[in-house]
Design a protein that fits this description.
6 helices, single chain, globular, alpha+beta, disordered N terminus, four-stranded antiparallel β-sheet
Length: about 475
């Protein structure tokens, strides 16, 4: 039982908080495993906080916000499902997209020595309350001379398509140069360096602002077309350090490796590099093709039209062969009759990219066997962090425990009523089982025990509000968690 403080103690704590002291002692956090992927977090309330933010990171990953609670709440349940990557393959899961434009992510100096700001646009599925969402950074083309993240048709098209699949999509600006500064392909190399550094700055912005946009910084994808494809390829293959980086913010890479943590996969669209641009090996001139690929580079899907005369498809073929030789996961699609940008093939290309991203994402999830948690106090005057508490999970979070995924069906899904039907084949459960429904923040909204039956109909006590939930079925021997959409 929690002992209430004396009024004098309350007054003193309020005065301390106003002075910027949020807590006299660190928050003590304890984590208790309830079952294979449900944990209960409890922590001490050492001051009158304005609420708490709960954060989680996978082993070897980065923290992301998974929920928040209000004043005087000191407990939180977390269902750690590792979002099912296959749920993000289907087109038009969401009917509308929310666009936020002109967000500054970097101040840089261009090749003429002129200070300039770089902006990005955020596309996200409307009416989506998922806490930790995957993100795709989209990079436009234009030969490093022209092009815009706002007006290039296929970038806007793909950003909308993948936002409707459930991804947060971010299209970025990068520094351009005029044609006279790049008369040959080899002269384009400094422009490629600038673009790659700016893309890396965008990746770092995503990690810094992940909680604000409900992004999982461990699920970052990158894609681009033409010059943008060359940029994504370079970002994913160059390791650093980057001694030619001069201006802020790219000079942060001058003496350090590029931080690729969280990068899952790359889509290089009609943008394979010419031989004289393929290496980023120092000292200058960095045009060697040796040692520019390693087995640890980011998995890549390359797509190109065989009638492209702007950037020859052989460049993507060469890229694919080089990735195979370096033992980097790769996939190549050559589209017969398609010219540069492969216009008219957007639906097919989207399906290829979505399937490839989901496949690589599932490999990452399969490696997760533990999460580390922490709690952060919310105060305008500052924050106090808890200790870190880790939890090992007894089953692989990405592998269904049923031998056949069709053994459990939740329908209708999306559902617009309080009657949710679940079809079960009882021989997989053998005994009684629990059905529970959770919010994405981990709050349990419904729980009931059932006996095995071939067809089970669950009737909720009250209608769920519009949103996305998790429905969990568990017995002693097996478990199953599936996303439930109420519209």
């Amino acid at each position: 039982m929690k002992t209430l403080p004396l009024k004098s103690e309350v007054d003193n704590k309020k005065k301390s908080a106003k002075k910027g002291i949020t807590s006299l002692n660190p928050i003590k956090l304890d984590v208790l495993q309830i079952n294979s992927n449900l944990v209960n977090l409890t922590w001490s309330d050492s001051a009158l906080e304005d609420g708490y933010t709960i954060q989680r990171k996978p082993s070897g990953g980065l923290y992301t916000q998974i929920g928040s609670v209000g004043t005087n709440v000191t407990t939180f349940n977390d269902v750690a499902p590792c979002l099912n990557s296959n749920d993000f393959i289907a087109a038009d899961r969401f009917s509308a997209v929310k666009l936020t434009s002109n967000i500054k992510f970097a101040d840089v100096t261009n090749y003429k020595g002129i200070a300039t700001s770089l902006n990005l646009d955020v596309y996200e599925p409307a009416d989506d309350n998922t806490q930790a969402r995957p993100v795709i950074i989209w990079i436009h083309g234009g030969g490093f001379r022209t092009g815009s993240s706002k007006t290039q048709g296929y970038i806007v098209n793909y950003s909308n398509r993948f936002a409707k699949r459930g991804y947060v999509c971010i299209s970025i600006e990068y520094r351009l140069r005029d044609r006279s500064s790049m008369p040959t392909q080899s002269d384009e190399f400094p422009a490629l360096q600038d673009a790659a550094r700016d893309a890396n700055a965008a990746i770092n912005w995503v990690k810094t602002n992940a909680a604000t946009y409900r992004i999982d910084p461990n699920l970052i994808f990158i894609a681009g077309g033409s010059a943008g494809g060359r940029t994504t390829q370079t970002v994913c293959q160059f390791d650093g350090p980057d001694p030619t980086a001069i201006y802020a913010p790219e000079n942060q890479y001058k003496n350090a490796l590029w931080d690729k943590m969280g990068l899952i996969a790359n889509a290089t669209l009609w943008g394979g590099l010419e031989p004289e641009m393929r290496g980023w090996v120092y000292p200058s001139p960095p045009y060697s093709t040796a040692n520019y690929l390693q087995a640890t580079n980011v998995p890549t899907i390359a797509i190109h039209g065989d009638a492209d005369t702007t950037i020859l498809p052989q460049n993507s073929i060469d890229l694919n062969n080089a990735l195979i030789a370096a033992k980097v996961t790769t996939e190549l699609h050559i589209i017969p009759g398609a010219t540069h940008s492969c216009l008219g093939k957007e639906e097919t290309i989207s399906e290829w990219i979505a399937a490839f991203f989901a496949k690589e994402w599932s490999k990452v999830n399969a490696k997760v066997n533990s999460f580390t948690y922490r709690v952060v106090s919310n105060n305008t005057t500052g924050h106090t962090y808890s200790n870190e508490a880790s939890m090992e999970y007894s089953s692989n979070l990405n592998t269904p425990n049923f031998s056949n995924k069709n053994d459990v069906l939740v329908y209708p899904n999306p559902n617009d009523s309080r009657n949710i039907s679940v079809n079960l084949k009882a021989f997989h459960l053998m005994n009684q089982f629990d059905v529970a429904i959770y919010s994405l923040e981990g709050q349990q909204l419904f729980s009931k025990k059932y006996q095995p039956t071939e067809n089970l109909k669950i009737e909720l006590n009250s209608k769920l509000s519009k949103g996305i939930y998790l429905i969990s079925l568990r017995s002693e021997k097996t478990s199953f968690t599936k996303k439930l959409i109420i519209n």
